[in-house]
Specification:
By secondary structure, the protein is mostly helical. It is built from two helices and no strands. 68% of the residues lie in helices and 0% in strands. The protein is rod-shaped and about 60 Å long. The two termini are 13 Å apart.
Length: 73
């Protein structure tokens, strides 16, 4: 994957992870569906947040193949 595509995928993953963090907070507070907190759902979205955030950071920082390198040709 080239650098530009890697960065785009990384930024999208980071944005989705932030949305997952918001959903996790809503579920822990219990404001999404009912007035009771849903701890299991909150933990699920928190785990998704961590996984997407790590994937996004790895993708953004990846060097990728440049067209000038022998591996990129």
């Amino acid at each position: 994957m080239n650098r530009t595509a890697s960065r785009i995928v990384g930024v999208i993953a980071i944005i989705l992870s932030l949305g997952s963090a918001v959903l996790a907070a809503f579920y822990w507070l219990g404001t999404v569906i009912t007035d009771q907190p849903h701890t299991k759902h909150g933990l699920l979205f928190a785990a998704i947040f961590v996984i997407l955030l790590l994937f996004g950071n790895i993708s953004v920082r990846a060097k990728g193949r440049s067209p000038e390198s022998p591996a990129g040709k």
